[in-house]
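Long-time lurker, first post.

We've been arguing in lab meeting about whether pyridoxal-5'-phosphate would sit comfortably in this protein at all. Half the group thinks yes, half thinks no, and nobody has a model to point at. So I'm putting the question to the forum: if I give you the sequence and the SMILES, can you give me back a predicted structure of the complex? Inputs are below. Any interpretation is welcome too.
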Amino acid sequence: MIPTDIFPPRLRLAHTPTPLQKMERLSRQTGVEIFFKRDDFTGSELSGNKVRKLEFLLADALAKGADTVITCGGAQSNHCRATALAAVRAGLSSLLLLRTDDPANPPPVSGNILLDRLAGSEIVWITPEQYRAREEIFEREAQRLRNEGREPFIIPEGGSTALGAWGYVAEMQELAADLKHLDGGDVKPTTVVCATGSGGTTAGLALGARLSGAAIRVVGVNVCDDRDYFVAVIDGICRTFNDTWLPGKSAVIPPYDIVDGYVGRGYALSRPEELVAIRDLVRLEGVVLDPVYTGKAYFGMIAELAKDPRIFGDRIVFIHTGGLFGLFPVAEQFAGLV
Ligand SMILES: Cc1ncc(COP(=O)(O)O)c(C=O)c1O
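Top reply:
Settle the argument with this. Predicted structure of the protein with pyridoxal-5'-phosphate, as tokens:
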């Protein structure tokens, strides 16, 4: 169990605990027991994994007297949308650095961008090259706000910091309780599979699995970059987490695996077979994934199971981390499939 006295302050924003649902037909089809942890049910506007991290990040922003949060992401970032909406609920303003090829011609106001706009976020469009140097832009924008007498609070990409990882430490505690209830005692060996986009979810799950002491293995399917990149990011988050909340145990990085090979055409670019997998799951289970994160991770999980049905053991929990609003701006890609 995780000692409650080490939990940082938390602002309750997410609708939790989320349901753990068995995918009966998918389990029969694959020969493996597959459950979905429905973190797409964490809220309507706040749907997805990011709100779990924001519970801790925004509590910190409020404690530090901030009035504006600044964060960054791709044009259709779920993290930025969740931050914009959660900020409103917390009484804060938001400024989003959104990545696009041509900032002079930003993408249409659809999907997450529409929600960012509705929430009244200030949007600063930046190029992919500027995004790589985003620390400087964070600082520049924070200074501009300070010059206006405001108090900014920077949330790094995806909310993937050691503090943000607490959201998924808490989620793992919730999942371990779900599984204990299901198994009527000790948790049977289980593999948790999630999409890895900026690393915080995977790091939090791995830390949470170790702290819970349950026989839960954590596997991330990276949807961008590569395995080496994410091992460096996730180990870094875990090290900072350990140094901050578990001093004395800082050398212990919890185990986790990254399954590489499913980035496909690149971040937020879909292959027809990924879209077919999304469609087929809707028709099999009535569950809708997004093309950027959960669809790719699910495609990777199914492809690995096709190679070796026992690769993840006898029971899998796939974390549905949300992202549905990212489906609608790419509707035309489904032409011919639906
Ligand atoms: C819907 C969705 N799923 C999964 C992820 C990946 O989570 P993380 O960034 O913590 O790796 C993200 C964000 O990047 C996301 O928006």
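For your lab meeting: Residues 48-49, 78-79, 158, 160, 195-202, 290, 293-294, 321-323 surround pyridoxal-5'-phosphate (CB under 6 Å). Residues 50-159 form a domain with the Rossmann fold fold (CATH 3.40.50.1100). Whichever side wins, do check it experimentally.
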